Amino acid sequence: MEVGQRITACDLEERGQHIQEGDIVLIKTGYVDRWWRTTRFL
Questions:
Q1: Would you say the pTM of this structure is higher than 0.70?
Q2: Residue 2 lies in a domain
Q3: What percent of the chain is modeled with pLDDT above 70?
Q4: Is 29 within a domain?
Q5: Could you list the residue range(s) of the whole structural domain that residue 24 is in?
Q6: Cα–Cα nearest to 4, from 30, 31, 23, 25
Q7: CB of 11 within 8 A of CB of 27?
Q8: pLDDT in tens, 7-21
Q9: 14 is a domain residue
Q10: Do residues 42 and 23 make contact, with C-beta atoms less than 8 angstroms apart?
């Protein structure tokens, strides 16, 4: 997963995160950071 990569439903299931499909996940150092933020992408 890269910075700014759009997530998919499959990503949600694998990570179990409470974020919605289509959100853009901002990550640090190659890992979804503990303090990740999501930005709505419409």
A1: no
A2: no
A3: 0
A4: yes
A5: 9-39
A6: 25
A7: no
A8: 665 665 666 555 555
A9: yes
A10: no
* HEC-encoded secondary structure of the chain: CCCCCECCHHHHHHHCCCCCCCCEEECECCECCCCCEEECCC
| Residues near 3 by beta carbon (within 8 Å), at least 6 away in sequence | 26, 27
CA distances from 35 to 17, 20, 32 (A): 12, 16, 8
List all residues 6 or more positions away from 34 whose beta carbon is below 8 Å from its beta carbon: none
Confidence of residue 29 (pLDDT cuts 50, 70, 90): very low
Determine the Cα–Cα distance for residues 18 and 34; give it in Å rounded to an integer. 13
Q: What is the mean pLDDT of the chain?
A: 53
